[in-house]
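Components:
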Amino acid sequence: MKKLQNKVAVITGANSGIGLATAKLYLQEGAKVVLSGRRQEALDEVAEKLEGDFITIKADVSIAEDNKRLIKEATDTFGKIDVLFLNAGIAPVTPTHEITEEHYDTLFNTNVKGPILATKEALPHINDGGSILFTNSIVTQKGFDGLGVYSATKGALRAYQRVLTSEVKSRKIRVNSIAPGPIETPIYSKMGLPEDVVEEMGKGFAQQVPLARFGTSEEIAKSALFLVSDDASYINGVELEIDGGLSQI
Ligand SMILES: NC(=O)c1ccc[n+]([C@@H]2O[C@H](COP(=O)([O-])OP(=O)(O)OC[C@H]3O[C@@H](n4cnc5c(N)ncnc54)[C@H](OP(=O)(O)O)[C@@H]3O)[C@@H](O)[C@H]2O)c1
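Structure:
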């Protein structure tokens, strides 16, 4: 029996990295999947390669109206939602003395406002007993230079999740999150840093991981499946670190 047979899953940031790997796995496990992203060309490219029952919807999570439209189009197509995976995020690097208002606003609008407003829009359409999953990060437990505002966004999101877990308890909706360590995805090429700096930074991260390597999106997807499936039926409100042990030492 497939783990998400006939379940409807909405995933943000699904055209790349962790979101895309998870969308593929959910489809393999029988889900109907709504893949959302902010770039139409990336969504089209992904749609050409995927197999299964899915649609793509272009929506920028930092725009309130887009979140509303995303949920409307998703539910118009598939009806009620069983799994909401709020994964879209950005991680531009800026040391504190260079932080601008725009840097702050872009990060908080994308990484905090987006998932919170998408949750608000989706809640009336989520089946009782459904699952909400967020992508946090271990940056709330370890400090990495230049990632101050990014880390703050993930900390804010974690705090929000504790409240949400309680607010939806009467509907038996489970709220969990994954906290990846360094995972090989395109996010590093979007940080606004030269390639050689990204490479050095990557080596530095890998050295700190007890398993001495980056993780893969596929490794994260397996946990993103576990937490929303019945295998995790008594797991609620947690943040699961998937980081090769980095946050634990
Ligand atoms: N990779 C890591 O080491 C790592 C570690 C810890 C946590 N994370 C978290 O994991 C999540 C996924 O990141 P990833 O590593 O898989 O990177 P990724 O490959 O860059 O994926 C991020 C996804 O989010 C989308 N996105 C960004 N801003 C958006 C917006 N305003 N509206 C809609 N979609 C938007 C991106 O779209 P575009 O393709 O258009 O940019 C992309 O599809 C993020 O929340 C990130 O913070 C990653």
